[in-house]
Design goal:
It contains 17 helices and two strands. By secondary structure, the protein is an all-alpha fold.
């Protein structure tokens, strides 16, 4: 790399590092600046969905297999914490020790779920995930001895003051979101992430190149379910209750898809932006208006607008606009080099005519070798 290019890259890295530091400061002091429980409640739900949509995008966005059954892992993680706390008589802050169990339950469900669903291709996979989702929702309604049926389950009491409750869950959900994003970045930059993107582009060709597609898809599916189950347990402790219709909510999956498509499917920052835009807006509409279906109607209308006008999402579309703005006015094809630049590029000790004669001789020799090979 030349000196100007290296200095440009170093400036970009310095700017990115400064932006990350400023972002870290902002998210850390957020509950201090905005101490209202209403505002922190918005932030907690936004961070919950940020973590879950990042986990969803880690599988569906990278592999191209759109899952509408992510609520299976989310609700199962919530019920796992509630059932274990009730059976083992765990109260207080000790209930947070059950969060690894929620993650393990999500992973354990994802293994047979994935072994069945991932044997089919993308469109059929969507139908299978919907069917499995409704099976788990019906189980939550009817297994009264475990799930409480329509009554649901209540979370153990946490001995925190009302003012500290939201603030502490803000930092807990922030940690979950940060871990999910870091894992997504590591996966995308790894060979594993490259294999997932190869499956998304052309699964048959990826298999022909040696990618064990079933193993790679299942590993990403289980990883996504593990994070989602963990966050489901955190959500249960924050909400203090889980019901079949809230733990296994079909709108939950549709919201994840909308967030990912709005920001940019398969990107790192796209689902994060989608979660920060949609979830607070959905909460605001739910609280502002008594019509419980208004937010769902607007979500559907927003999804149609995204598909029609911004099908690639905000992040890829904005990146394309920036590239167009930077290259505006520049020729699409670089102009031919002048004779002076050609003489300057010639090797020392050679004139431009001698260099041209040597290049012509080398090209003729290459054509003769190619003719002999053919």
């Amino acid at each position: 790399m030349t000196g100007p290019m290296m200095s440009s890259v170093s400036r970009q890295r310095a700017a990115a590092g400064l932006a990350l530091v400023l972002l870290a400061v902002v998210v850390i002091v957020f509950p201090v600046v905005f101490s209202s429980p209403v505002v922190t409640n918005y932030a907690v739900y936004a961070l919950i969905f940020m973590a879950v949509v990042t986990a969803w995008n880690m599988f569906s966005g990278f592999s191209g297999y759109i899952s509408l059954g992510q609520a299976v892992f989310f609700g199962s993680g919530a019920y796992a914490v509630g059932i274990a706390a009730k059976a083992w008589h765990i109260n207080g802050v000790g209930v947070f020790a059950l969060l690894p169990l929620a993650a393990a339950v999500g992973a354990a469900i994802a293994v047979p779920f994935g072994l069945i669903a991932l044997r089919v291709r993308r469109h059929t996979f969507i139908v299978v995930t919907i069917a499995v989702f409704f099976i788990f929702q019906l189980m939550a309604f009817n297994l009264n001895s475990f799930t409480g049926g329509t009554i649901g389950m209540s979370a153990p009491f946490l001995p925190w003051t009302p003012t500290a409750f939201n603030d502490r869950f803000y930092y807990i959900t922030l940690a979950c979101a940060v871990v999910a994003v870091v894992i997504a970045v590591l996966v995308r930059r790894s060979r594993f992430g490259l294999q997932l993107r190869a499956i998304k582009d052309d699964e048959d060709r990826a298999r022909g190149l040696g990618v064990r597609t079933m193993r790679v898809k299942l590993a990403a599916f289980v990883l996504s379910a593990t994070i989602t189950g963990l966050v489901g347990g955190v959500w249960f402790l924050y909400l203090t209750q889980v019901l079949p219709q809230s733990g296994f909510d079909p709108l939950f999956d549709l919201s994840l898809v909308l967030m990912a498509f709005l920001g940019g499917l398969g990107t790192i920052s796209g689902p994060i932006i989608g979660a920060l835009l949609i979830e607070p807006g959905q909460l605001y509409l739910t609280i502002k208006y008594t019509n419980g279906y208004l937010s769902e109607i607007l979500l559907g209308a927003l999804f149609l607008l995204i598909v029609l006008f911004v099908p690639r999402g905000i992040v890829p579309t904005a990146g394309e606009w920036v590239r167009r703005a930077r290259t505006r006015g520049q020729p699409a094809v670089p102009p031919p080099e002048s004779p002076a630049s050609q003489r300057a590029a010639a090797p020392p000790g050679l004139t431009s005519d001698e260099g041209a004669r040597r290049e012509g001789g080398a090209s003729r020799a290459a054509r003769r070798r190619a003719g002999r090979i053919n």
